[in-house]
# Entry
Amino acid sequence: AQTVTQSQPEMSVQEAETVTLSCTYDTSESDYYLFWYKQPPSRQMILVIRQEAYKQQNATENRFSVNFQKAAKSFSLKISDSQLGDAAMYFCAYRSPSGGGSNYKLTFGKGTLLTVNP
Amino acid sequence: DTAVSQTPKYLVTQMGNDKSIKCEQNLGHDTMYWYKQDSKKFLKIMFSYNNKELIINETVPNRFSPKSPDKAHLNLHINSLELGDSAVYFCASSQVNHEQYFGPGTRLTVT
# Structure
């Protein structure tokens, strides 16, 4: 079974600074998907960024980028120019490719609570 | 234009009662899910339906019964509610090999 580990329960960053959230995962599959979701106090789960394992290029979405190290099974999220609105719980998630019953589910890490200081 | 909606957003009920949470998506997705987020914020899959067919049923007590009347709806019925059922329940939907979109969540409190 796949597992996802977020080793930082909490992180803080100064507004306008850069912060990196860590995520590692364990899998025997060669093809899969990785995601970062953000959950602000409103509790809405918001997709931040997605990475396909077969793509070597790291995904980027505006101020958000990932460092995907497939061999190391590492998938960290970098937030540049942090803003107050970035304060939230961030979840790393793993998903197998389609093709079987359990392959549709997301396996989540325990989350990292990010605080942004003005 | 709410993509994935859930009703109700809050539900407070007593132990032993039966309750339902409804979910609807207007994204045209084939697959829908129920996740449970516990008090420590841990998210875990409960069920998944693909084209109205149950494809994932994690180790969930059989007091929980999902029902998918059509591709756009996935409801969750819970019988004989227990204190430990208190949590936030999220509905989500996706197309195959695409990201999942979540509803706003339903906070269930069992007293």
